[in-house]
Amino acid sequence: MELSFTTRPLGDSMVLEVAGEIDITTAPRFRARLIELIGGSRSIVVDLHSVGFIDSTGLGVLIGARRRLGEVGGELSLVIPPGPIRDLFAVTDLEGIFTIRDSFPALGGS
Fold first, then answer.
1. In terms of C-beta density within 10 A (0-12 exposed, 13-18 middle, 19 or more buried), how is residue 58 classed?
2. Which of the four pLDDT bands, split at 50, 70 and 90, describes residue 86?
3. Is-contact 77 101, C-beta < 8 A?
C-alpha cells in the first residue's frame, strides 16, 4: 500500500497525518518527511489514525525522530486511536517513551 502525508499547523505544533502502511519499503520516505519537519518545528504531532500497518522499521523511524527532537528541546507526540497499532505500542513498551493520545481533542489544541 502507498504511503501518503498531509501536513498542517496546530497551534505551535506541526501535524503530520500519515496514511497507508509504514514498512521497510516506505520507512525511508517517512523518515525523510519527519527530518524535514524537524528542521522547521520543535513540536511535531504524528497522526497515525489512517495507518493500517507499521513494522519495526517504522517504529525505529519514530524513535529516531523523538531522539532528534529531544536533542534540540523539542517534542514528538502521537495520535493513535485504540486498535492494533496502539496495541503494538503497548506490547513493545513504547507507550512509556511517547506521548500518545487517542485523538486531537485530547491534545488540548496545542
1. buried
2. very high
3. yes
DSSP string, 1-58: ---EEEEEEETTEEEEEEEEEESTTTHHHHHHHHHHHHTT-SEEEEEEEEEEEE-HHH
Residue with cell 496502539: 86
Residues 14-50 as b/e (b if ≥16 CB within 10 A, e otherwise) read: bbbbbbbbbbeebbebbbebbeebbeebebbbbbbbe
pLDDT digits (tens, 9 = 90+) for 30-66: 999 999 999 888 999 999 999 999 999 999 999 999 9
pTM of the model: 0.91
